[in-house]
Specification:
The protein is an all-alpha fold. It has one domain. It has 10 helices and no strands. Helix 5 (about 60-80) packs across helix 6 (about 95-110), helix 7 crosses helix 10 and helix 8 packs across helix 9 (about 160-180). The longest helix has 27 residues, at about 115-140.
């Protein structure tokens, strides 16, 4: 089944079910990829627990965002019914990772300043986290990189903000599941989220009649 056809009418629940089935079928590969992906979060986790300065915390998000742009390609493959490959992680987008990490670094610095700057820092953090999943998903599905992926992802988020809320909600639910399982689900969570993001972004593009070949959003 093509990716676009799978999302023409499906809602969030249907996408969750489809994602669960697809990831389960590819569980061994998903676990292996999960190990590599989680390694990319270690700098952020280490910075948080070490109480590192704000700018260090912001910079430490670079490996996380770089791995995220790579695993987005894994999610696209799984959502299309294809076998996930570790090699797909090498398709990470350095440009997008630098921009998102830069935004987090700037927001972390602003939060340390009293007054309006602190509010701007929190707003920038929220905006980055709100748009990042769609940006990386859009870049992987449409094969866009750097500024092109950022621009397309922002346009898509503005056009379908409720879908961005759905992605955040699923991310929070997965986080609770990780806590409840004492981290057991941690290894499969990255591929699960990447696949769900691929389903969601493909659905957004289909609803806007710009998937898979239109250049309306680029």
């Amino acid at each position: 089944m093509s990716l676009s056809a799978a999302h023409r009418t499906d809602g969030g629940i249907h996408r969750l079910i489809a994602t669960s089935r697809q990831v389960w079928r590819e569980l061994p590969a998903a676990l292996a990829i999960g190990v590599i992906t989680i390694a990319g979060t270690m700098p952020v986790v280490g910075s948080v627990f070490a109480g590192a300065p704000a700018w260090v915390l912001g910079v430490s998000t670079l490996p996380f965002f770089l791995v995220s742009t790579g695993i987005a390609h894994v999610g696209v493959r799984v959502s299309r019914g294809e076998r996930p490959r570790v090699e797909s992680l090498a398709q990470g987008d350095v440009g997008v990772a630098l921009i998102l990490s830069g935004a987090m670094t700037l927001s972390a610095a602003l939060i340390q300043i009293d007054g309006v700057a602190r509010g701007a820092g929190f707003a920038l953090t929220a905006l980055t986290l709100f748009t990042a999943p769609i940006i990386v998903g859009y870049g992987a599905i449409r094969d866009r990189r750097g500024i092109s992926a950022i621009r397309g992802g922002l346009i898509l988020t503005a056009a379908k903000p409720l879908e961005a809320v759905t992605l955040l909600s699923v991310g929070i639910l997965v986080s609770f599941a990780l806590i409840a399982s004492a981290g057991v689900l941690g290894l499969v969570a990255p591929v699960f989220l990447a696949t769900f993001i691929a389903h969601t972004v493909a659905g957004m593009l289909t609803e806007l009649d710009i998937y898979p070949t239109s250049e309306s959003v680029s």
